[in-house]
Give the backbone structure.
Amino acid sequence: LTRDQGVSEIDLVCLASFPSNLKMMKPSSDPHDFRQDSNTTDEDEAPSSSSSRYAKPGGRSDSQKADRETQRLYAGGGSGSGAGGSSSSAAAPANSNRSTTPRITMTANAIIQEIEQKSSSLASSLVDTVLQRHNVTEQEQKRKSLRRIWHLFVKLLMPYWKRERSGRWLFLQVLVLAIQTSIITVVFSYLSRDFWNAISEKDIPTYHKKAWQIFLVICIAVPLTVYYSFRRGVLIMQWRRWMTNTLLKAFMSEQNFYHAETAINMDNPDQRISEDVRQFTSMAVMLFFSIFKSMIDLVSFSIILFSIYPLLFLGLLVYASIGTVISWFVGRKLIHLSFVQLQREADFRYNMVRVRENAESIAFYRGEHRELNALEYLLWFALENYYDLLKWTRNLDFWTSFYTYNVTLVPVLIVAPLYFNGKLGLGALNQAWSAFDHVLTDLSIVINEFENLSTFSANIDRLGDMVEFLEGRMSSREKRVFIQDVNAETVAAEYMVDPDQSKIELNYILVHLAKVQVPLDIKNMSLVTPDVSHRLLIKELNLTLNHGDRLLIVGPSGSGKSSLLRAMAGLWRNGSGSIQVLSHERTMFLPQKPFCTIGSLRDQILYPESVSSYQDTLASLDLIQDSNLAQLLGRVGLAGLERKFEDGFDSVKDWGEVLSVGEQQRLAFSRVLLSYESGRTQFVICDESSSALDVDSENLVYSLLEQTDISYVSVGHRLTLARFHTKLLRLSNDGQGGWTVSPITEEIRRNAAIAAQFRL
């Protein structure tokens, strides 16, 4: 690690130690005699426990260390009685019953083995922590790269202005308003100079004239300034709407929303799309117009300042340059801390939502204390980084405050001698101070906006990561909006757990109204888990499902039943071989926990289709009428469900909370029947989709499926399911990916029905 990863040896200290009060025993030369070392005392054990705490890279393995420590500490002598300490686990006397000796020996060996395992686990945990810290440092250096931040900023910035004409027109309006407000500021500067000169010279007519002129300029400036802020806000809103919709389309396409959950460096995509987009568009527009107006003011007031006193202008340039350089060195760590803060705040918010969504389960478990501890830890985790953010902000504020307060003194010190010598009037002195303040503010935009720039950089980093991930997974380059040249291999290497692992070839059967004869064909498919362990679940599976066949998948927990269904759906591709399956348009998946969308009861039955998709023909429109939907609910055992709500099928509820899991599962079967009757669904995949139903209700919904010519695959544990299927795929959990396929005969159905009668 020291050589390859640049990790210091100090990070690898304190791996494990033997507890000083643990009394170990070692067999003597006599296999039936087990005694404690008579030469080892508590004082002798303490130093050896401490010495075993330290390890250096390249040393022996933990098991060798444990063996060496055991031999040194517990080397026993002849056949006398033990003379160890007073531990409760001390060895039995030499004259104890020999029949208990093998059990004691096994206990001691188990203790030694447990310590070896704990030592190895602690070592592995410490190494992971050190490498994680090392990776964080690399990520921090990456985020400090201004070149990368600028590259991502340009990629995120340009598409909207290139594609949206209305956005360009609105941007031009705001630009003109910004120029007008800057001109008003310059005009106001000259009027103020003449106003104060009139006061200094006691010129009453000029005083009244300039006062009216200033009032007139104020009347013009107020609506211009207000309308400029309003149109700028509209520009931010329209840009945010376009960018959010674009990212949502990419997020919801090609199952990116699913793969984002398992991707590394892709935490909280919901926050990135909602909060980070909002902050990016707002800060980008605000910073741009701040810089634009600063450039106009810089040119205008630099001319004024140079005309008053050139030395004052040169002094301002030196002062601003020094201030900018110092501010960068003092606050450069804020970029990384702002990124981490956004991440940890999102984690805390996500877990709060998680508690709300699982409130009933937590209440049943009485797990509120456990969840409270987790939330308190996440809060502490966020506040810990926030405290670091405050400390670095404090350091920056020390300098920026000193820098800002000196603005009131520096220009006056330079120009005051001219005023005292009568070469400069009071109005010109005031104008010089005002121009100095404007120009210094314009040159110090990095200093004044450093905290906002740090947060903005973090937003760019997080949004850039997400755009790279989403568009890197797009199959067609034409679909990419932000980053056309993104490399799919680079994206996989950065965001996927194991980008080099081979993939299962997935081919979809495209059909329209004709019945397909082979909805599922699996050839030599081996499936492994998509994590770093690559655990083999299924090895070289060959399976063909003809039209009308019904497959039941069984096996112990962890054998890969649901994983096989994920592979059929294209969610898991890790492995080898090929799968040919009916296209998504003709396939419906029924999970164990059905999903209820936002909408009415009618929308729940039609999901994933909508009312508009059934309006093509009159026959399809009849299928979604209230009478037909009521009959459909009655067929699956939900008769009268719509009458429980005031608006019937148009009632909008949080259906995931209103309906029980059993009701949701029966509602899911009604979706299948409706989709089949409309000519859409020909193939169904059921992942324990009747687990919450009683046997009679399960028989009801499966008998409805059996009456159709739909081919389906089911995962289940109940013996009663056998009567509704024609083939049986049995998966083993032997670690070798074993499996068997056999037909379900009438004899098997009868035996399963008899056995099911004796089960509760």
